[in-house]
Design goal:
Elements lengths: L5 H21 L3 H9 L5 H7 L1 H12 L4 H10 L1 H15 L7 H20 L11 H19 L3 H10 L4 H26 L6 H7 L1 H15 L4 H24 L1
GO cellular component, one term: plasma membrane
Organism: Paragemmobacter straminiformis
Pfam family, one: TauE
Length: 251
């Protein structure tokens, strides 16, 4: 693992197991948990490369959990967000070594935390129907810009899904489809930048196993959550993700 030692690998595996569990339960947060923890004991480029394959494989599982036909229907429904996200992951990935990441993380973390905290306080934020197309394009661009440089592109989509009242199963499936397409795009982009290489990809592949184990455990919890409890837990995780973004920016 690029000379990091066995201790670093097992720590990464434990983090990935936990991240998989959270993802299985609420449908997101795996890259955020992984990159946030990995950055404390791995070089930044290895930390980002490590999450690529676990993210890809677990999102394939998540997007196809109800079958291929629902996954394709969800892809058609949210195609604007997905197209903008993939395009801008490719664009921003080219600047992963140049962009001021702390500023970008802060600009994403503050509004996400504020949005989720307001919803938890009982102040529901919704998007009017006439604004949905613009919101999909805009949030897709935003997700792609952050995704290419940090490996995290889910929060903007989750904000859209929660604010428009999408049901639990479709929310999780839409996140899975978006994350899968984003992971494929991210892998392709960083094969070109050299970040995904012969040293980092074996490490990333090894983390697929704990990721899948965690996902299976998380699915069992997700199936027990009704719509209200699911929405509450997603807001809690979203607040935690936003605060973690702010912490990383300030560090």
């Amino acid at each position: 693992m690029a000379g990091q030692g066995a201790g670093a690998f097992w720590a990464a595996a434990a983090v990935t197991l936990f991240a998989g569990f959270v993802k299985g339960a609420v449908g997101f947060a795996m890259p955020m948990i992984m990159i946030g923890a990995f950055s404390s004991f791995l070089p930044p480029e290895l930390a980002l490369a490590g999450l690529i394959l676990p993210t890809l494989v677990t999102n394939l599982s998540q997007s196809l959990r109800q079958g291929l036909a629902p996954a394709l229907a969800t892809t058609r429904k949210f195609w604007r967000f997905l197209a903008a996200m993939c395009a801008f992951i490719i664009v921003s990935a080219q600047f992963v070594r140049d962009l001021p990441q702390p500023a970008m993380l802060l600009l994403l973390g503050v509004p996400i935390t504020a949005y989720a905290a307001l919803n938890l306080s009982g102040r529901s934020l919704t998007l009017h129907l006439r604004h949905r197309r613009g919101a999909e394009w805009g949030l897709g661009v935003l997700g792609g810009l952050y995704g290419g440089v940090s490996g995290v592109w889910g929060p903007p989509l989750l904000v859209y899904l929660l604010s428009t009242g999408v049901p639990k199963l479709e929310t999780v499936r839409a996140l899975g489809v978006a994350f899968l397409l984003g992971a494929i795009t991210l892998l392709g982009a960083h094969l070109q930048t050299g970040l995904a290489n012969g040293q980092s990809l074996p490490f990333s592949a090894a983390l697929v196993i704990p990721a899948q184990i965690g996902m299976s455990l998380g699915y069992a919890l997700q199936d027990r959550l009704d719509q209200t409890r699911f929405r509450w837990w997603t807001q809690i995780v979203l607040v935690a993700m936003g605060l973690n973004l702010i912490r990383r920016a300030l560090m």
